[in-house]
């Protein structure tokens, strides 16, 4: 089946058919050392104190012991920092990174130059020498996305960069449809592969992340993450859940807020400003209704564990399969989403994905269900925060108002989203960003070697 977005509605309304219920110099690949007295990446990112609800769900869905689940979260936090340092050191030769194993103990970093292998090993990872750089793969995927028409995209609804195979994968309803798209895009055969699947992703329609909310008293979605913007409080969710101007009520049917902005298709993001009766909290709803804290938005690696909360199916976990994915629903194509093995059903749309204590994104769509399993896609959180200029509500106190430089001469700004490789100054020192994230008041460069390294 092609992808579909799932829509859920109030009990009196017919389902909509959607998931709303629906660098270092090029000659050198040596990474900068971490200060001896620096806090660990796991501690910086909150992976050393995971919520019990997350641990239980990881044990259930990933078949782990509690000790394995704890170790996996710690290993993934450390691996993200190591991968960021190596990506910056490798520069244009970088071809992706991923973790594997029950506890994500093995980090692999890919390069197009075999001479980088010793430096990658010294940086704490296994080297994979491949043919294509990550930039090459992204360019090929962009060509596929530009070539896909409304009709052909429905027959080849999912396109993603698979760093583990060093290919761009086209998931299609038939091999002929996939091959036709690759041929039309004029992609080198070594760059792309076709995967045949009957899955038809659909958007997942339906202020704590994972709680239900209702749009115009008709459709139901799930809250993504609580955010603030100046004096306003609210939340982000999926774009297909509502349009700018639409009103919302909360899980308790009490008047809640108004959609300030929404994008779908193209992307799948929105943000809702709540009225004064609602307060943003740094939590998502975990198993049994327990609160799971949100500490930041550092992007997790391919292969990392990720958990999702939704108002229909609750709390479920899986793994990140690919970033940089494009998926076509009947309403159109969205780009830049992440593909996962986490299940979902109508009404879960817009709900939060979290890895450890780090926000990852909001549910867009998928296929399958939570009985037989499935595939889902989420809109990454950092582009949402950046697009709307909102600040993720976290359990870390804000040391200064968002948008204010920490020093008169510094360029690091609390509330700004930084990508891997971004350079800032702080207290007269230049730093390079290791992992994409939104800067928070207490997560300053000098104190967070998991996120920043000296240039």
Annotation keywords:
GMP Synthetase, Chain A, domain 3; alpha+beta; 19% helix; six-stranded antiparallel β-barrel; 455 residues; Seminal Fluid Protein  PDC-109 (Domain B); 34% strand
Summarize the structure.
This protein has 455 residues and is of the alpha+beta class. Helix content is 19%, strand content 34%.
- In DSSP terms (H or I, runs of 4 or more residues), the helix count works out at 8
Q: What is the subunit organization of this protein?
A: single chain
CATH fold descriptor of one domain: GMP Synthetase, Chain A, domain 3
* CATH hierarchy class name of one domain: Alpha Beta
Shape: globular
How helical, in percent, are the residues?
10-25%
Q: Which architecture of one domain does the CATH hierarchy give at level 2?
A: 2-Layer Sandwich
What spatial order of strands do you see in the largest sheet?
1-10-9-13-14-15-12-11-24
- Report the radius of gyration as a whole number of Å: 21 Å
Overall pLDDT metric: 89
Poorly predicted tracts of residues: 6-18, 21-28, 397-401, 404-409
First-residue to last-residue Cα separation:
49 Å
- What share of residues are in beta strands? 25-35%
Structural class: alpha+beta
**Quick one: how many beta strands?**
29
Give the biggest sheet.
9 strands, antiparallel
Polypeptide structure, described:
The protein has 455 residues and is α+β, with helices and mostly antiparallel strands. Among the domains are: 134-200, GMP Synthetase, Chain A, domain 3, CATH 3.30.300; 400-455, Seminal Fluid Protein  PDC-109 (Domain B). The protein has 8 helices and 29 strands. It has a 9-stranded antiparallel sheet with strand order 1-10-9-13-14-15-12-11-24. The radius of gyration is 21 Å and the shape is globular. The model is unreliable at 6-18, 21-28, 397-401 and 404-409 (pLDDT under 50).
């Amino acid at each position: 089946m092609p992808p579909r977005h799932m829509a859920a509605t109030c009990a009196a309304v017919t389902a909509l058919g959607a998931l709303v219920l629906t660098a270092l110099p090029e000659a050198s690949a040596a990474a900068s050392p971490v200060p001896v007295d620096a806090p660990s990446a796991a501690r910086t990112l909150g992976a050393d104190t995971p919520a019990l609800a997350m641990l239980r769900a990881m044990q259930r869905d990933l078949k782990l012991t509690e000790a394995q689940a704890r170790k996996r979260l710690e290993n993934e936090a450390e691996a993200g920092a190591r991968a960021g340092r190596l990506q910056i050191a490798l520069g244009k030769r970088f071809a992706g990174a991923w973790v594997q194993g029950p506890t994500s103990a093995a980090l692999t970093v890919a390069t197009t130059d075999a001479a980088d292998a010793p430096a990658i090993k010294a940086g704490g990872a296994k080297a994979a020498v491949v043919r294509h750089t990550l930039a090459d793969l992204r360019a090929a995927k962009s060509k596929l996305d530009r070539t896909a028409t409304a009709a052909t995209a429905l027959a080849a609804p999912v396109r993603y960069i698979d760093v583990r195979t060093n290919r761009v994968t086209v998931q299609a309803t038939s091999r002929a449809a996939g091959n036709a798209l690759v041929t039309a895009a004029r992609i080198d055969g070594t760059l792309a592969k076709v995967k045949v699947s009957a899955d038809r992703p659909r958007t997942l329609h339906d202020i704590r992340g994972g709680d239900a909310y209702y749009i115009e008293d008709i459709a139901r979605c799930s809250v993504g993450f609580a955010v603030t913007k100046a004096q306003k409080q609210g939340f982000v969710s999926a774009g297909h859940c509502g349009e700018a101007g639409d009103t919302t009520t909360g899980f308790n049917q009490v008047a809640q807020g108004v959609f300030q902005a929404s994008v779908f298709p193209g992307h799948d993001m929105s943000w809702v400003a709540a009225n004064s009766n609602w307060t943003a909290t740094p939590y998502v709803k975990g198993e049994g209704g327990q609160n799971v804290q949100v500490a930041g938005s550092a992007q997790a690696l391919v292969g990392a564990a990720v958990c999702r909360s939704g108002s229909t199916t609750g709390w479920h976990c899986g793994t990140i399969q690919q970033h940089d994915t494009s998926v076509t629903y009947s309403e159109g194509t969205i780009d830049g989403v992440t593909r996962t093995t986490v299940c979902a059903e109508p009404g879960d749309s817009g709900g939060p994905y979290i890895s450890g204590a780090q926000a990852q994104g909001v549910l867009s769509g998928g296929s399958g269900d939570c009985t037989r399993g499935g595939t889902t896609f989420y809109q990454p959180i950092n582009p949402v925060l950046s697009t709307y200029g909102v600040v993720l509500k976290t359990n870390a106190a804000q040391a200064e108002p968002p948008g204010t430089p920490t020093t008169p001469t510094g360029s690091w700004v609390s509330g700004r989203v930084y990508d891997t490789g971004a350079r800032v100054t702080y207290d007269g020192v230049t730093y390079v960003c290791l992992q994409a994230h939104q800067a928070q008041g207490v997560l300053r460069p000098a104190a967070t070697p998991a996120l920043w390294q000296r240039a």
